[in-house]
C-alpha cells in the first residue's frame, strides 16, 4: 500500500513538473520565434495564461460529434503524464525502472498523436477528418525511422553494470555507454534521425501538416473549445518537454549523475529545444507526400546505416 | 480581479470574420500581426477556428447572404467573448446603408442572437493598426 502511494505521489510530482517545464519551453519557443522575426514576443507567463483562460471558457460539444469526443484529450494527456514519469524515473533512479520500459515509453509517446486522430474523427467535421487522415499518414511516416534509430542504440550498447548489455531498460541506456567509436557514430546518426522524428511528432513546421491553420482551419482540433482544448494544449506542451528529454536519455547520454551531469543534461535539452525552434522558423510547410518520402526514403536508409554500424561494432 | 478574468485579458485569441468588406480593414488587421505593431506581445493570436476564439474581429457591412452565417459564427464562439466591429462599414454600414444587399450593421445582427453581447466599435476607413490596438486594449480594460 505504501509502495502504491509512493508511485502515485511520484506520478503527480513528475507530471506537474513536466507540465511546468513544457510551458516554459513553449515560452522559449515563442520568444525565440519573436526575436527571429525582429519582434518583441509575449511575456514569460503567456502559456500559463493561455491554459487558465481556456479552462475558464465554456465547453461546446457539436451536434454531430460521436461519443468519446471529450474522452480523447483525457487519454492523450494521461499517456503523456505516464511517459514523462517513466523517463524521469529512468534518469533519477536507473534501477527503479524495469526491463522493457523503453518499449512501453515508445507506445505511450505514440498515444497523443492517435488521440488527435481519434478526436478529429469523432468531431463530425470534414475539416477534422482531413486533418485526422493527414496525422495518420504522418504517424506511419515517422515511427519507422524512430524505431530503427532506437534499435541501433540498443544493439550498440556496451555491457553496463546496471542491467547487462543489449538491454531494453531505459535506466540502463541512460547510464550506459556505447561500444567504441563505430557504435558512437551509430548513436549520433540515430540522434539526428530522432531529432526529425520528434519534430514531426510535435507537429512543428515543416511537418505541421495535420493542424495546418490556413488550409484546414485547425484540422482535428477545429471543433474543440474550452477545457478539452486546454487538455490538448497541455498535452502538446508536455510533449515539448518530454520528447527532447527522451532524445537526451536514449541518444545523448542521459541527464547524468551528479550536479555537473544534470547541468550538462539541461544544456543538451536547451540545445535540442532551440534547434527545433530555429528549424521551425526557417522552413515552409511540406505536403504530406513530401513528408512520407522524406521519412521513408530519406531517414529510413540512414536508420539502416546506423543499425549496420551498431551491429558491426 | 479573479484569475479567470486576468487570464482572459492576458490571452485574447482572435478570429477574423469578413462579412462583406472591401478587404482594406482585413489588410489592416493582418498588419497588426506584423513586426511593426506585433500584437502577439499582448497574447493575441490569430486562431483558425471560431471555437478557439475569445474575440471576433468582424469587418464589412453584413450582407444578406452573410447574416445567418455571422449569427452561426457568434453562436459557435464559446462565451465569454467580445465582438469587435472594425471599420466604418461594420459600425454603421456607412455609404452602403441603402444598398439592396445590406442586412443591418453588425451590432444589430449580433444582438438578434444575443441581446447581452459585448460589442466594441473601432471606426475608420480603414482604421489604422494603432486604432485597432487602442480599441482592443480599451475593450479588454473595460471587461473587469
List the helices and strands and how they pair.
The complex is a heterodimer of chains A (313) and B (144).
Chain A: H1 2-36, H2 46-55, H3 71-92, H4 101-121, H5 126-156, H6 170-175, H7 180-201, H8 213-216, H9 227-251, H10 258-281, H11 288-312
Helix pairs in contact in A: 1-3, 1-9, 1-10, 2-9, 3-4, 3-9, 4-5, 5-7, 5-11, 7-9, 7-11, 9-10
Chain B: H1 3-10, E1 13-18, H2 24-31, E2 45-46, E3 55-59, H3 67-76, E4 82-86, H4 88-92, H5 106-113, E5 118-122, H6 129-141
Helix pairs in contact in B: 3-5
Oligomeric state of shown chains: heterodimer
Through-space gap between termini of chain B: 7 Å
Q: Calculate the mean pLDDT score of chain A and round it.
A: 88
Instruction: Output the structural class of chain B.
Output: alpha/beta
**Strand runs of chain B, count:** 5
Architecture of chain B in CATH? 3-Layer(aba) Sandwich
Number of helices of chain B: 6
Overall helicity of chain B: 25-40%
Helix content of chain A: over 70%
Largest inter-chain contact set: A-B, 31 and 23 residues
Strand content of chain B: 15-25%
CATH topology value of chain B = Rossmann fold
Rough outline of chain B: globular
Amino acid at each position: 500500500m505504501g509502495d502504491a502511494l509512493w508511485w502515485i505521489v511520484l506520478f503527480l510530482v513528475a507530471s506537474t513538473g513536466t507540465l511546468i517545464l513544457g510551458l516554459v519551453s513553449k515560452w522559449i519557443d515563442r520568444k525565440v520565434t519573436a526575436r527571429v522575426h525582429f519582434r518583441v514576443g509575449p511575456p514569460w507567463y503567456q502559456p500559463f495564461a493561455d491554459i487558465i483562460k481556456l479552462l475558464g471558457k465554456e465547453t461546446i460539444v457539436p451536434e454531430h460529434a460521436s461519443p468519446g469526443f471529450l474522452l480523447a484529450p483525457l487519454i492523450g494527456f494521461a499517456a503523456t503524464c505516464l511517459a514523462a514519469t517513466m523517463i524521469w524515473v529512468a534518469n533519477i533512479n536507473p534501477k527503479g525502472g524495469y526491463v522493457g520500459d523503453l518499449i512501453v515509453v515508445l507506445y505511450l509517446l505514440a498515444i497523443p498523436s492517435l488521440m488527435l486522430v481519434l478526436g478529429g474523427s469523432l468531431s463530425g467535421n470534414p475539416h477534422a477528418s482531413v486533418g485526422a487522415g493527414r496525422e495518420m499518414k504522418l504517424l506511419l511516416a515517422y515511427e519507422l525511422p524512430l524505431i530503427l534509430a532506437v534499435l541501433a542504440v540498443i544493439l550498440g550498447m556496451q555491457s553496463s553494470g546496471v542491467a547487462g548489455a543489449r538491454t531494453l531498460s531505459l535506466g540502463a541506456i541512460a547510464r550506459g555507454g556505447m561500444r567504441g567509436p563505430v557504435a558512437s557514430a551509430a548513436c549520433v546518426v540515430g540522434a539526428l534521425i530522432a531529432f526529425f522524428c520528434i519534430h514531426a511528432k510535435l507537429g512543428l513546421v515543416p511537418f505541421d501538416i495535420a493542424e495546418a491553420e490556413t488550409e484546414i482551419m485547425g484540422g482535428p482540433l477545429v471543433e474543440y473549445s474550452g477545457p478539452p482544448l486546454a487538455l490538448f494544449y497541455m498535452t502538446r506542451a508536455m510533449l515539448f518537454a518530454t520528447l527532447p528529454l527522451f532524445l537526451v536519455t536514449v541518444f545523448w547520454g542521459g541527464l547524468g549523475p551528479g550536479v555537473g551531469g544534470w547541468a550538462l543534461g539541461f544544456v543538451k535539452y536547451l540545445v535540442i529545444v532551440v534547434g527545433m525552434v530555429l528549424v521551425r522558423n526557417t522552413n515552409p510547410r511540406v505536403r504530406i507526400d513530401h513528408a512520407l518520402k522524406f521519412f521513408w526514403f530519406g531517414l529510413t536508409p540512414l536508420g539502416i546505416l546506423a543499425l549496420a554500424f551498431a551491429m558491426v561494432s | 480581479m479573479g484569475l479567470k478574468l486576468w487570464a482572459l485579458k492576458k490571452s485574447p485569441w482572435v478570429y477574423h470574420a469578413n462579412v462583406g468588406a472591401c478587404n482594406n480593414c482585413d489588410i489592416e488587421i493582418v498588419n497588426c500581426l506584423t513586426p511593426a505593431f506585433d500584437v502577439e506581445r499582448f497574447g493575441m493570436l490569430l486562431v483558425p477556428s471560431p471555437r478557439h476564439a475569445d474575440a471576433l474581429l468582424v469587418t464589412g457591412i453584413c450582407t444578406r447572404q452573410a447574416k445567418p452565417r455571422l449569427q452561426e459564427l457568434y453562436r459557435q464562439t464559446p462565451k465569454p467573448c467580445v465582438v469587435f466591429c472594425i471599420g466604418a462599414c461594420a459600425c454603421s454600414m456607412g455609404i452602403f446603408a441603402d444598398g439592396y444587399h445590406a442586412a443591418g450593421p453588425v451590432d444589430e445582427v449580433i444582438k438578434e442572437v444575443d441581446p447581452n453581447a459585448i460589442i466594441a466599435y473601432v471606426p475608420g476607413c480603414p482604421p489604422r493598426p494603432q486604432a485597432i490596438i487602442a480599441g482592443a486594449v480599451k475593450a479588454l480594460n473595460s471587461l473587469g
